[in-house]
Amino acid sequence: MTSVIATISLKGGVGKTTVTAGVAEFMAGEFGRRVLVVDLDSQINLTTMFLGDERWVKLNAAGHTLATVFADAVDQTSEFSLPDTLQRDVSTVSGVAGLDLIPSSLDLIEVTEELSAMRVRRDDTLAGVSALRDALELVVDQYDYVLIDCPPNMGPVTLNGLAMADGYIIPTIPDVLSTYGIPQVQTYIGRFGEEIGRRIVELGVVITKFKANSSVHKETVTRLRRDSTIQNVLPGYLGEANSIAAAAEFGSHASLRAKYGSRGQFDQFRELTRTIMVEADDKLPLRQLGT
Ligand SMILES: Nc1ncnc2c1ncn2[C@@H]1O[C@H](COP(=O)(O)OP(=O)(O)O)[C@@H](O)[C@H]1O
Ligand SMILES: [Mg+2]
User: Fold this and answer.
1) AAA domain location, by residue (predicted)?
2) Of the ligands numbered here, which is closest to the C-alpha atom of 46?
């Protein structure tokens, strides 16, 4: 059974990509799960984190990225090749197997505009919304978890991610501005789920870049845990650490501990991953086949 989990937030820079990449690597490396990560952000950070620039440039030139999925939806073509686009065993940590990636493209910026125009032209807010799900349908069942890194907006590409998601997590830095839009995201996803007849379950808010010496961070975490409009702040969290920032750079590592940091960061990531898996197993419905 597969759980499809989207990482989402209206803010950039809150650690969405870092959480998605790290949790995926820990699911595969520490818990032996088969994981597919899908990079939906035109900033291609998740993609280059795992593949490096050179490999991405080649894939992109050949059209072997997600941009082709959406170009097909707009142009009514079928250029997308799943076998050529799916990148196997992309973890840069030695010994970590079972982590695959669907790469993104800078071309998504332009394609997203065309997708929006198509929705307006057809006067259909759901036009093209199942393009991603249809494109990946043949492989989804091969994984225990599919993690989808969304761009920081509710545009048509994000909706494609949500349309195939069973659940979602919202990473946030625990400060006033970063947490501001969380209720809006929850309401929006709830409404979108109703529109497409699919329950998209909130797994929880993930605290990122926590600074133990910041009173604002400590107060915000307390407030979030108390606030009834925020249903669930996950117990797992990530502290701010240079080693976690450095993990974004493409390069090989001897172990997850070496990559993410041995001063508590490895344990934080492992615990965060475990709590997300527990929430997913607990809350997500049996996979909603065909919906
Ligand atoms: N726990 C952390 N400690 C230190 N730096 C972090 C942490 N999480 C993320 N970062 C850094 O913060 C920046 C934004 O993170 P990123 O994951 O790209 O956010 P988003 O995907 O939400 O835009 C990146 O430079 C990343 O390396
Ligand atoms: Mg990102």
Assistant:
1) 3-196
2) 2
Rounded to whole angstroms, the maximal C-alpha distance in the chain is 54
In a domain, 289, yes or no: no
Tell me, what CATH number does 38's domain have?
3.40.50.300
Is the CB of 217 within 6 Å of ligand 1? no
Across the beta sheet with 99-102, what order do the strands follow? Answer: 99-102, 35-39, 145-149, 3-7, 167-172, 201-210, 233-239
- Split into its structural domains, the chain has a count of 1
Distances (CA, A) of 245 to 4, 77, 126: 26, 39, 37
Distance (Å) from CA 280 to ligand 1 centroid = 23
Domain for residue 27, yes or no?
yes
Mean pLDDT of 173-188: 92
Q: Is 15 in the pocket of ligand 1 (CB under 6 A)?
A: yes
pLDDT exceeds cutoff 70 at 230: no
Ligand 1 site, residue 182, Cβ cutoff 6 A = no
* Residue nearest (by alpha carbon) to ligand 1 atom 17: 15
Q: What is the pLDDT of residue 286?
A: 65
Q: By alpha-carbon position, which residue is closest to atom 11 of ligand 1? A: 245
Å from CA of 17 to ligand 1 middle: 7
Ligand 1: does its nearest atom lie under 6 Å from the Cβ of 264? no
Domain region containing 150: 3-283
Residue 250 included in any domain = yes
Token representation of residue 243: 């080693």
Rounded to an integer, the average pLDDT of 73-83 is: 96
